[in-house]
């Protein structure tokens, strides 16, 4: 995917940028990123920061969460960003339906992570209520692909789901951020499930205990490990 540079050398025209303290270059609308790393490296925390809107043009973020509750996600959002919860919507797939936190921008429930059709339908419903118009600027996350694989036990079904999901992100001009832990899967599974994504953001814990990030597939950014 090509990114149209801004005339003054800044962010892509009408693209998605990130906080200045994140070593990730701006990307074009419709881009889907996979954030890969071990549990120790905490790719979920990095994904949360990538989902945080940085301009008023971004209406907010929608996170499909397979492991945590809406209250847990809201607490992590407050700890990792300075964006109000009114700009966050959560589709909770862990099967524990509870009252949504006050002030949350949108909410939805799916009975279990293996219900891929239900996830797609509920995500579309929440997005429609959260965004003004079909091409509203929305950041969409899924945490995590690894949990989908664990519950579905069908790599091809998850691949088809991701292919369709990223396709909708592409046509709607949104940003996709997907969390994946390749260390808990066979290398073949990791390769197959990474195919639908446009670029990868890898995170690791370096020799000195500091988290580092490497971006691969974003035009204009060299894939080298950088301190986070």
TrEMBL record:
Stored Pfam families: DUF7504
The protein's name in its UniProt record: Recombinase RecA
């Amino acid at each position: 995917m090509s990114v149209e540079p801004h005339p003054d050398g800044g962010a892509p025209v009408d693209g998605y940028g990130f906080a200045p303290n994140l070593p990730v270059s701006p990307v074009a609308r419709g881009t889907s990123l996979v954030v890969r790393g071990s549990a120790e490296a905490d790719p979920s925390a990095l994904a949360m920061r990538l989902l945080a809107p940085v301009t008023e043009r971004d209406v907010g973020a929608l996170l499909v969460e397979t492991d945590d509750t809406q209250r847990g996600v809201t607490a992590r959002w407050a700890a990792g960003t300075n964006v109000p919860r009114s700009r966050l919507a959560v589709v909770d797939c862990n099967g524990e339906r509870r009252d949504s936190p006050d002030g949350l921008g949108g909410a939805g429930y799916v009975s279990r992570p293996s219900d891929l059709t239900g996830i797609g339908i509920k995500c579309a419903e929440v997005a429609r209520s959260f965004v003004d118009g079909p091409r509203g600027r929305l950041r969409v996350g899924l945490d995590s692909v690894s949990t989908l694989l664990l519950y579905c036990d069908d790599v091809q079904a998850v691949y088809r789901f991701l292919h369709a999901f990223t396709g909708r992100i592409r046509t709607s001009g949104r940003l996709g951020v997907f969390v994946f832990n390749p260390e808990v899967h066979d290398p073949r599974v990791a390769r197959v499930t990474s195919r639908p994504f446009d670029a990868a953001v890898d995170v690791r814990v370096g020799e000195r205990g500091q988290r580092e990030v490497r971006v691969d597939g974003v035009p204009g950014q060299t894939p080298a490990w950088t301190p986070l």
